[in-house]
C-alpha cells in the first residue's frame, strides 16, 4: 500500500512539473538566402541557453524556435541571430558582420529599419 501511495505521489509530481515546464514555440522572421545561412542561423540560436530546437526555412525566411521561457526569451534569440550577421524584425546585424558574410548569404537589407538596430547595445 505504501508503495502505491509513493508511486502515485511521484506520478502526480511529474505531471505537475510537465504542466509548469515553460517550453514555448515561436516563429520569427530572419533574413538570409541559402543553406549556409540556415546552418549559421540554427547554430547561433541553438547556442542560446534554454533553446531546445531551431529550424529556419529559407523559402519563408521564418525561424521556428522552441525554448524554455524560464531560461531565455525571444529577445536573446533575436540578438544571437543578429550577432552572426542576419537581420530580424527586432534587431539589425552590425554592418561589419553582415559585410563579412559570404556573397551567397548577402540578402537584401532594408534601407532604414523602423525597429532598433543591434548596434550600440551593450549586452
Report on the structure:
37% of the residues lie in helices and 17% in strands. The protein has 123 residues and is α+β, with helices and mostly antiparallel strands. The protein has a single domain, classed as Alpha-Beta Plaits, CATH 3.30.70.100. Strand 2 and strand 3 form a beta hairpin.
Q: What proportion of the residues form beta strands (DSSP E)?
A: 15-25%
Shape category: elongated
- How many distinct beta strands? 3
- Rg, Å, rounded: 19 Å
Order of helices and strands: HEHEEHH
- The number of helical segments is 4
Total domain units: 1
Helix content: 25-40%
Using the coordinates above, name the CATH class.
Alpha Beta
Given the helix and strand composition, which structural class is it? alpha+beta
The main sheet orders its strands as 1-3-2
Quick structural overview:
By secondary structure, this protein is an alpha+beta fold. The chain has a single domain (19-105), classed as Alpha-Beta Plaits, CATH 3.30.70.100. The chain has helices spanning 2-20, 35-46, 74-83, 95-99; strands at 23-29, 51-57, 62-68.
Feature tags:
123 residues; alpha+beta; Alpha-Beta Plaits; 17% strand; elongated
List the helices and strands and how they pair.
Elements (H helix, E strand, L loop, with lengths): L1 H19 L2 E7 L5 H12 L4 E7 L4 E7 L5 H10 L11 H5 L24
Antiparallel strand pairs: 1-3, 2-3
Amino acid at each position: 500500500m505504501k508503495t502505491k501511495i509513493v508511486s502515485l505521489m511521484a506520478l502526480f509530481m511529474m505531471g505537475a512539473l510537465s504542466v509548469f515546464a515553460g517550453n514555448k514555440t515561436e516563429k520569427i522572421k530572419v533574413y538570409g538566402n541559402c543553406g549556409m545561412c540556415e546552418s549559421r542561423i540554427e547554430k547561433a540560436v541553438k547556442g542560446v541557453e534554454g533553446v531546445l530546437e531551431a529550424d529556419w526555412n529559407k523559402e519563408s525566411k521564418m525561424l521556428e524556435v522552441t525554448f524554455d521561457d524560464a531560461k531565455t526569451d525571444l529577445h536573446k534569440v533575436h540578438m544571437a541571430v543578429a550577432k552572426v550577421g542576419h537581420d530580424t524584425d527586432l534587431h539589425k546585424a552590425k554592418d561589419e558582420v553582415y559585410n563579412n558574410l559570404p556573397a551567397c548569404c548577402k540578402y537584401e537589407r532594408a534601407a532604414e529599419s523602423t525597429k532598433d538596430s543591434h548596434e550600440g547595445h551593450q549586452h
